[in-house]
Amino acid sequence: MPKFSHDLSHAAQLDLLERLTRAALTEHYGFDGAAAAVEVQQYEDNAVWRITPPDHDSSFVARLSIRDGRPAHQQRSEMRWLESLASAHTVAVPDPVTTTSGHYVVPIEVPDHDEPATLALLHWLPGTAEPPYRRPGTAQKMGTATAHLHEHAATVHLPDFDRPVWDAQTILHHGHALTGPGTHEQLGADGTAALRKVTELITPALEEGGPTDRGRIHGDLHRENMIALPDGGVGVIDFDDCGTGHCLLDIATILSSVHRIAHNEPGGYEEFARGYLDGYTQVRPLPTDFSRLLEPYLLLRDAFILNFVTTAAPVNADVASWGPRRIAGIVVNMQAYLEGRPYPGALGMHRP
Known about the structure:
Elements (H helix, E strand, L loop, with lengths): L9 H20 L7 E7 L2 E7 L7 E6 L6 H17 L7 E2 L7 E4 L8 E7 L4 E2 L8 H18 L9 E2 L1 H6 L2 H4 L3 H24 L7 E4 L8 E3 L5 E3 L6 E4 H16 L5 H14 L8 H23 L4 H22 L14
Parallel strand pairs: 8-12
Antiparallel strand pairs: 1-2, 2-3, 3-6, 4-6, 5-6, 7-10, 9-12, 10-11
Family: Belongs to the pseudomonas-type ThrB family.
Organism: Streptomyces vulcanius
Pfam families: APH
């Protein structure tokens, strides 16, 4: 078997990882991995496939974490939350599958790879990624799904939940975009300066909020991590970045992701935001000082993206194909914010 190397092409890396995953499905889950139908979904920090074993009517998601992955104990926390959410039946999520010996996470040996690799398997959530936000009622359902995640976090205790803390210190002050080697070249001098100034300005606002505003959050709740279900509902997938933090980070993330595709449609984003927030408040109140704090969390979301891109682009050809353009756009938006313009997605709200 070839060795994993950054010198391998993107396709060759993925081919090697698929073979390792097929073998693990046979060894640990009792499936015929060699005969399973495999469809790649994504290959960035994780390699993700849709798996349909022979003689199965349903499919599964295999996620092989190979780069910057969460340690196994943190992935087990993620799986326990998903299991609890699935059993609550308030929002549709992928239900984890344990191995034949009852484990959530399997270590995988990747030849000549210098980071631990782990495999998790989940039931496939049927539907279509990225719900059609313009369809009547969809925005409200996306808001309701978000609120159910937060309400579950507020009302269901999960002992030993050990996941990243998504706050100003983690994302901004200690984030890769400001502290990682080589990021100055990726952001440029002006971009680095803008990010440092934004960090200084918004940190006080990001430190606000009481216990009801913070808890378990998805962490990466953009529109493509929501699923339009066959019954007309909306589900949520990809909890790989789940952690603890302010609920506004999830809300800002979905609003920002829709703004990116709807802002050129007159009134389209504003209409979506109204529907989404209406759906959210049907389940639980908006976080304290929502209208004042949304803008800092939109900026925090983009800093989160900068951390991801500056980490992944040097080692992943797919991210490298779009990452520099994304960095440039975020830098322009941050510079405009520092000049006094509202940040994209801010709904005309005043600053803290």
